[in-house]
């Protein structure tokens, strides 16, 4: 019986550690950008709590043969680098955490969010 209790407690602790480790890899908040679809309609895309530390090719604009997105707004708790090219290539700009919306002249196809800073 003692072995079962120990095993159960160990598995519960492991699940707690794994669940908090995964959430630490996401920027908290929202990132928005606009794009024009094939019908000429302007659309806005919102990324909720986007993954940090990896390149994200953006929906509807993430390929070099598509029109780029524009007017990004970083309302997450981490800085983000936006790229004109797909796969986080080409010219890049940094947007501050919880910053103001960028002008519509700033184009983008991919982004990379900084890893969140651990609370002290």
Question: How would you briefly describe this protein structure?
Answer:
With 120 residues, this protein is of the alpha+beta class.
Q: Going across the major beta sheet, what is the strand order?
A: 2-1-4-7
Terminus-to-terminus distance: 39 Å
Global geometry:
globular
In CATH's first tier, which class applies?
Mainly Beta
CATH topology type: Gamma-B Crystallin, domain 1
Q: Residue-averaged pLDDT, rounded?
A: 84
Gyration radius, to the nearest Å? 19 Å
Structural class by secondary-structure content: alpha+beta
Share of β-strand residues: 25-35%
How would you sum up the major sheet? 4 strands, antiparallel
Number of domains: 1
* DSSP helix fraction: 10-25%
Count of helical stretches: 1
Q: Considering the protein shown, what is the CATH homologous superfamily?
A: Crystallins
Number of strands: 8
CATH architecture: Sandwich
Description:
The protein is of the alpha+beta class and 120 residues long. The protein has a single domain (27-113), classed as Crystallins (Gamma-B Crystallin, domain 1), CATH 2.60.20. It contains one helix and eight strands, in the order αββββββββ. The strands form two sheets. Strands 2-1-4-7 form a four-stranded antiparallel β-sheet, with no helix packed on it. Strands 3-8-5-6 form a four-stranded antiparallel β-sheet, with no helix packed on it. It is globular, with a radius of gyration of 19 Å. Residues 3-23 have low confidence and may be disordered. It comes from Streptomyces roseolus. Keywords: Signal. This is Secreted protein. Residues 1-26 form the signal peptide.
């Amino acid at each position: 019986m003692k072995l079962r209790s120990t095993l159960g407690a160990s598995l519960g602790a492991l699940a707690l550690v794994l669940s908090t480790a995964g959430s630490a890899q996401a920027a908290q908040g929202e990132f928005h950008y606009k794009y024009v679809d094939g019908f000429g309609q302007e659309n806005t895309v919102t990324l909720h709590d986007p993954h940090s530390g990896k390149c994200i090719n953006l929906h509807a604009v993430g390929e070099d043969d598509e029109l780029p997105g524009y007017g990004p707004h970083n309302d997450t708790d981490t800085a983000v680098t936006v790229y004109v090219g797909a796969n986080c290539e080409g010219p890049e700009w940094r947007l501050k955490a919880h910053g103001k919306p960028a002008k519509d002249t700033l184009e983008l196809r991919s982004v990379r969010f900084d890893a969140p800073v651990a609370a002290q």
